Model the fold of this input.
Amino acid sequence: MKRSRKTDAISWETVREIASSLPEAEESTSYGTPAFKVRGKLFVRFHQSGESVVILTSIEEREALMKLNPDVFYITDHYTCWPYVLVRLSTVKKDDLKHLLEESWRRAAPKRLIAAYDKQP
Done:
């Protein structure tokens, strides 16, 4: 049976649930919107559009993501020179979002914290 789109909808609450499960993730704000940081470094924020989140990535990976799935990934002019990509909450799958948030966290977290996280069973 196919689930309806409404039950699959991803909200900031879904992002919060995933992000807060990562080690030392701290709820914060960025540009006046809800965000999560690890040891003071931003790894995800709710975009002021109310429809997307901004995650940390590399510019090269961002370009590949936007090319492969432009319905999910995009940037605005503000992010052209910064290693971030916007992710549309209405089109991203929860499992993909979980992976994206963990990868973003890894880019922001110190190496020792990542090593400790990777040692967990």
The helical segments are 5-8, 12-20, 59-68, 94-108, 111-119. The chain has a mean pLDDT of 93.
